[in-house]
Automatic annotation (TrEMBL), chain A:
Domain of life: Bacteria
The protein's name: Secreted protein
PROSITE patterns found in the cross-reference section: PROKAR_LIPOPROTEIN
Organism: Stackebrandtia albiflava
UniProt entry keywords in alphabetical sequence: Signal
Keyword Signal: yes
Signal peptide: 1-28
Entry keyword annotation includes Signal: yes
From TrEMBL, chain B:
Topology in the lipid bilayer: Multi-pass membrane protein
Compartment list: Membrane
Major subcellular site: membrane
Domain of life per record: Bacteria
InterPro entries linked: NRAMP_fam (IPR001046)
Stretches that traverse the bilayer: 37-60, 81-106, 112-132, 139-158, 183-203, 224-246, 258-280, 315-333, 345-367, 379-403
GO molecular function: cadmium ion transmembrane transporter activity; manganese ion transmembrane transporter activity
Source organism of this protein record: Stackebrandtia albiflava
Name of this chain's protein: Mn2+/Fe2+ NRAMP family transporter
An individual GO BP term: iron ion transmembrane transport
Any one annotated GO CC term: plasma membrane
């Protein structure tokens, strides 16, 4: 009896949750959307790396390794943007965004490795702007 | 005192046996995407693996024979051969994922690309397998793995919104806007990360190597009931830290470095060093277990003399099979394939193979011919059968979900 009640309650809870506000679609958007999401995600990584690098005792080597992953992911995003149809209006916007992100990533890596706090602070609004632009796409 | 120490070491082994690169990746990616909304799956996985490890341990203690040996005798050579092939495929893939995981940990500590480290890691693992004692391997790496607790500690430093975390944990559904199939894809991966097939195979074979007896059943049960949940707490720590630091940013976790960010933010270089040590301990321990499991599975199926404790000249085929398994995994990762991707595939294929591992354990644990008075009780069978239903659902849905969601994209 107790088990039946628990099972019914669990099922009801799950169904309420699932039907409330989630999509049953397996698709994750268009290629352009996925590329914008990927750039936005890397911008968020850069933001966290920047915060961690401003600590008194930053894990510089690990943050530098994480920046290598960011470079690689932005390279993949660039390839994806280049691969979009030339008449896709998102293509030039994404190419510019990825190019700006790559430049910022290079500046961030340099600031992380040299421990230049002033440069790190200056990069905060730049990274936030990149994240906002990616989210807006 | 000696008994307490033995118990502590055994629990440590179970903790180390639970956490591996699959748990780290699944915990980090899922925490960053869903917060704690998949906590219920982790709890199910811990219950499942503890239940079946207890059964497998009891089978070994009572019969004195390894699992694969009994599976072959009970189900016949053909069914057992399918079991062997599936287990070998998944365990080799898992072994590759663990080696890749070790290489990634060293990359994060050195900023030198992981592919440089793969062959040296293979050589070190082979040397340790060859020369170092079973208990030493288990204890040292289990102990190192405990430093993963730094993730759980980081949560307090990151000043989370506790009510939000509680709300996520008690609402077993995807967040708004998240596709349901993707949520279930990640649920299957997380479940498989807890119930990895090699865990039970290694646990039971280790029991034979250590000569478990029916008189030790209580202690063995205690190891399982404390060790696996403690391992689950380590995984939960990784998931919760990601939920606090990464989920609000909306980032998509795809590298091991990103999983480290919460501890980097909370504790700086000291926290990162502890986390890296923990990951190294967990992945190295899992590498040994997966490599030994390959040898155990082959040795037990073909009836060779097998065992880490048996001198190599007396168990040559077993030791050669360890070496060959290790070489295959090393060469696979050396091709430059992304270890995180290998981990994700290993979890999915583990999910598919789960019934082949767990059904025979349930069958043998219910067979009075082998088990006598230690046959499964009603409660054990209730939990075992319930978990088997979940295992079968996970196995059947894994591949369709993988294809339908584009690997959870």
């Amino acid at each position: 009896m107790v088990w039946r009640l628990l099972l019914t309650a669990g099922l009801a809870l799950a169904l309420t949750g699932l039907s409330g506000c989630s999509s049953w679609s397996a698709s994750a958007g268009s290629e352009a959307q996925r590329t914008a999401d990927a750039i936005g995600s890397e911008a968020q990584v850069m933001s966290l790396v920047n915060r961690a690098a401003q600590r008194r005792d930053p894990p510089t080597i690990t943050l530098s390794a994480i920046m290598s992953d960011v470079d690689s992911a932005l390279g993949d995003a660039e390839d994806a943007a280049v691969g979009l149809a030339t008449d896709d209006p998102a293509r030039p916007v994404l190419l510019e965004l990825v190019s700006d992100s790559m430049d910022t990533a290079a500046d961030l890596r340099e600031a992380v490795e040299s421990g230049d706090r002033a440069a790190l602070r200056d990069l905060e609004p730049v990274i936030a702007e990149l994240a906002s632009e990616a989210e807006a796409l | 005192m000696k008994k307490l120490l033995t118990l502590a070491l055994a629990i440590l082994s179970a903790v180390g046996g639970f956490v591996d690169i699959g748990d780290v990746v699944a915990g980090g990616t899922i925490g960053a995407r869903y917060g704690l909304a998949l906590l219920w799956v982790l709890i199910l996985g811990v219950i499942g693996v503890a239940c079946y490890a207890e059964m497998a341990g009891r089978v070994v203690a009572v019969s004195g024979r390894p699992l694969f040996d009994l599976v072959r005798e009970r189900l016949g050579p053909t069914a057992a051969l399918w079991n062997l092939l599936a287990t070998m495929f998944v365990t080799l893939l898992t072994l590759g994922a663990q080696i890749g995981g070790i290489a990634l940990v060293i990359e994060l500590a050195s900023d030198i690309p992981h592919v440089v480290w793969v062959i040296p890691i293979g050589l070190v693992v082979w040397f340790v397998l060859w020369r170092v004692k079973f208990q030493t391997i288990e204890s040292v790496f289990g102990f190192a793995g405990l430093t993963i607790l730094v993730f759980a500690l980081s949560i307090w430093w990151l000043d989370p919104n506790w009510s939000e975390l509680f709300a996520q944990a008690t609402r077993p559904a995807p967040p708004a806007g998240e596709p349901v199939p993707t949520y279930f894809y990640h649920a299957v991966a997380l479940f498989a990360s807890a119930m990895t097939p090699y865990t039970v195979l290694f646990f039971s074979s280790g029991g034979v190597e250590e000569g478990w007896k029916p008189s030790q059943l209580r202690q063995q049960r205690l190891n399982v009931m404390l060790g696996f949940p403690l391992g689950g707490v380590l995984s939960l720590g990784i998931m919760a830290a990601a939920a606090v630091a990464l989920e609000p940013t909306g980032m998509d976790v795809s590298t091991l470095g990103q999983i480290m960010l919460p501890v980097a933010l909370a504790f700086g270089v000291v926290g990162v060093a502890a986390a890296l040590l923990g990951f190294l301990g967990a992945t190295l321990g899992a590498t040994f277990e997966a490599a030994l499991s390959c040898g155990y599975a082959l040795g037990q199926y073909f009836g060779w003399t097998w065992g880490k404790r048996v001198a190599p000249e007396r168990a040559a085929r077993f030791h050669v099979s360890l070496m060959v398994s290790l070489a295959i995994a090393v060469l696979f990762i050396q091709t430059g394939v992304d270890p995180i991707l290998v981990t994700e595939y290993s979890l999915l294929f583990s999910a598919v193979a789960l019934p082949l591992t767990y059904l025979p354990v349930l069958v043998v644990a219910n067979d009075r011919t082998y088990m006598g008075e230690h046959v499964n009780g009603r409660f054990g069978n209730f939990v075992g059968v319930s978990m088997l239903v979940v295992v079968v659902v996970a196995a059947v849905t894994a591949i369709p979900l993988m294809i339908g969601t584009g690997m959870g994209a």
